[in-house]
From TrEMBL:
Keywords: Membrane, Transmembrane, Transmembrane helix. GO terms for molecular function: transmembrane transporter activity. The keyword Transmembrane applies. This is FSR family fosmidomycin resistance protein-like MFS transporter. The chain crosses the membrane at residues 12-31, 51-71, 83-102, 108-126, 147-168, 174-197, 223-245, 265-285, 292-308, 314-336, 348-368, 380-397. It holds the Pfam family MFS_1. Residues 21-401 form the Major facilitator superfamily (MFS) profile domain. GO terms for cellular component: plasma membrane. Gene3D superfamilies: MFS general substrate transporter like domains (1.20.1250.20).
C-alpha cells in the first residue's frame, strides 16, 4: 500500500519530465527575478534622472515588495483549494507589463506603479511555482526548492550585471529590451503549466498536499510558535539583504568613490554568492536536517557582517562572498521546514514565507532609506551588521525528523 501511495511522486522523481520541470521552473524563476532585480540595479540612474532622495527610492522598493508580500499568501490559500496551472504564465505577463511601463515612465508616480505591477506578477508566480517544484521533487524537497531558488538568485545576480552594461550606458528606455526575457518566461511557464495540469489530473489530492509530512504530534500552539520563529529568522535575513540589494552600490560609491558601473559589478559578486548559497542549503538540509542548516546559515554569518563595515574596498568585496553564501542557504531549508510543518497548506506556506520575505525586503528598503538620509549610508551598514543575532532563535525549533 505504501508503494502505491507514493507512486505519483516517485514516478515524477525518476523520470525525465520531472527533471525538465524543475529546470524549467528554475529558468523561469531566473527570468522573473532578473526582471525584478533590474529596478534596484539602476537606482543610481533613477536617482539622478528624477532627482530622488533615499526615502523616495525606498518607497519604490516598498511598492514592489508590498504588492508581492500582501497578495502572495492570498494567492497561495486560493490555489491550495483551486490550483491554477496557467497562472504562472499570467504572472509573468504582469511583470512584462510592469517592465514596459518602467521603460517609458515619465514621472515618479509611474515608476511606483511599474514597481507595483512587477510585484503583482511575483505574487502570482511564487506560491504556485513552489508547489510545482515540490510536486516534481520525488521526495527530495530540499533539493527541489534549492534548484527552484537558485534560478531566482541567479536572475537577481544577473540583473545588476546587465544593468551595468545595457541600461546605464543607454538610459531608462533600454529596459524595453528585457521584455524578451519576460516573453521567454511566459513560453517556458506555459509548457510547465501543461505538465502541472496533467499531474493534477492523475495525482490524488492527498498525495499532492500531505506527502513528506514529518510533524508528529506537535500541538497547534507549538506549530504557531514555530512559524513565528521562522518568520523572525526570515526578517533577519531579508532586512539585512535589503541593505545590499538597495544600497550596497551607494555604500561603495560614497565610501570608496567607485564608479556606478563598477559598483554594479561588486553587487554581482555578492548576489552570485547568494545564488550559490541557495543551491547548497536544500540538499544539505535533506542530508543533515533542516534545523542545523537554518541555525548555522543565519547565525554563522555574524562574524562576517560585523567585520564588513570596518574593511577596505578589497575586503569589503571579499567579505560579501561568505555573507551571501551562508545567509542564502537558509531560505530553502526554512521553506521546506515550514511545508513539512503544514503539509496540507503548501501554497499558503509558500505564499506566506515568500510574501513575508518580500515584505521585509520592502520595509527594510524604505526604513533603511530614511535612516540613510538621517545618519548616512555607512552608519546604516554598521547597524545592520547585528541583525543576524536573531539567528539564536533557531535553537527553539523542534526537530521534525
Amino acid at each position: 500500500m505504501r508503494a502505491k501511495a507514493e507512486a505519483p511522486e516517485a514516478q515524477a522523481a525518476g523520470s525525465g519530465p520531472a527533471l525538465a520541470v524543475l529546470m524549467g521552473l528554475s529558468l523561469s524563476h531566473l527570468l522573473n527575478d532578473l526582471v525584478q532585480s533590474l529596478l534596484p540595479a539602476i537606482y543610481p540612474l533613477l536617482k539622478q534622472s528624477f532627482h530622488l532622495d533615499f526615502g523616495q527610492i525606498g518607497l519604490i522598493t516598498l511598492a514592489f515588495q508590498a504588492t508581492a508580500s500582501l497578495l502572495q499568501p492570498v494567492v497561495g490559500l486560493y490555489t491550495d483549494r483551486h490550483p491554477l496551472p496557467f497562472s504562472l504564465a499570467a504572472g509573468m505577463g504582469l511583470s512584462l507589463a510592469g517592465l514596459g511601463l518602467l521603460a517609458a515612465a515619465p514621472t515618479y508616480a509611474a515608476l511606483v506603479a511599474a514597481a507595483a505591477l512587477v510585484g503583482l506578477g511575483s505574487a502570482i508566480f511564487h506560491p504556485e511555482a513552489s508547489r510545482v517544484a515540490r510536486l516534481a521533487s520525488g521526495g527530495r524537497y530540499g533539493l527541489a526548492q534549492s534548484v527552484f531558488q537558485v534560478g531566482g538568485n541567479a536572475g537577481t545576480a544577473l540583473g545588476p550585471l546587465l544593468a551595468a552594461f545595457v541600461v546605464v550606458p543607454r538610459g531608462q528606455g533600454s529596459f524595453a529590451w528585457f521584455g524578451i526575457a519576460a516573453l521567454t518566461g511566459i513560453a517556458v511557464l506555459t509548457v510547465v503549466g501543461r505538465w502541472y495540469a496533467g499531474r493534477l489530473a492523475t495525482t490524488p489530492r492527498v498525495a499532492r498536499t500531505t506527502s513528506g509530512a514529518a510533524v508528529g504530534r506537535l500541538s497547534r500552539t507549538r506549530i504557531v510558535a514555530t512559524i513565528a520563529i521562522l518568520l523572525a529568522l526570515i526578517f533577519s535575513k531579508f532586512f539585512y539583504t535589503a541593505s545590499f540589494s538597495s544600497y550596497y552600490t551607494f555604500y561603495l560609491i560614497h565610501r570608496f568613490g567607485v564608479p556606478v558601473a563598477q559598483s554594479q559589478l561588486y553587487l554581482f559578486v555578492f548576489l552570485g554568492a547568494v545564488a550559490a548559497g541557495a543551491l547548497l542549503g536544500g540538499p544539505i538540509g535533506d542530508r543533515f536536517g533542516r534545523k542545523l542548516v537554518i541555525w548555522g546559515s543565519i547565525l554563522g554569518v555574524l562574524p562576517f557582517t560585523l567585520a564588513l563595515p570596518h574593511a577596505n574596498l578589497f575586503w569589503t568585496v571579499a567579505l560579501t562572498v561568505p555573507i551571501g553564501l551562508i545567509l542564502a542557504s537558509a531560505l530553502p531549508a526554512i521553506l521546506v521546514y515550514a511545508q513539512d510543518l503544514l503539509p496540507g497548506r503548501i501554497g499558503l506556506v509558500s505564499g506566506l514565507f515568500y510574501g513575508f520575505a518580500f515584505g521585509m525586503g520592502g520595509l527594510g528598503a524604505a526604513l533603511l532609506g530614511e535612516l540613510a538620509d538621517r545618519v548616512g549610508i555607512e552608519q546604516v551598514f554598521s547597524m545592520c551588521a547585528y541583525l543576524p543575532v536573531i539567528g539564536f532563535l533557531a535553537v527553539m525549533l523542534p526537530r521534525l525528523r
